[in-house]
Amino acid sequence: MNQPATILRTGRKFDQVLKGARDVFMADGFEGASVDDIARAAGVSKATLYSYFPDKRLLFMEVARNECARQACDAVDMVETCCTPQEALTVAARQILSVILSDFGQKMFRICVAEADRFPDLGRQFYESGPMMVRARVKEYLEQATERGELRIKDFDLAADQLAELCKADLFPRMVFNIDTEFTEAERERVIAGAVETFLARYGA
Question: Which DSSP state fits 54?
Fold first, then answer.
């Protein structure tokens, strides 16, 4: 069950609460973030915060969903663009890698891993609320490109996942193990180009 979908009430301070919660979660993690700190950062009372989010996990998932929905909206341009598969997939790969290596993406990944034992559903809910949305945009483009005869794909779910995994080459392990925390444009473009070339070698028409 996707818990963020149960959030119904919004109001003039809804975005204010989300911004404050985002800052606190990113700084202190899920377990370390207190409701008092979130209310203080958001500039609202605890009563106001609870009127929007009666549970801290709901608030965390809405922060994740809100941020990832914004990132997924960036990917929709790729779906609607009339260009070659190489150009469209390069845009997609660049967006995927940008999300993975972003400060938000890194911290959310670490939070979900750190809380996996105590909150086993947290990672799944985060995936459903965020990364799965970007994956859906990629899958939509792959289906359309295949219909146009530009790509040859039978398993669109697998292909979308494979593109995402290709974008993790080299940089993601270095980030996870704290070998490096920042990467140059050249390093990013190297991975992006390699991901697209490999993908097209398998699925190009």
Answer: S
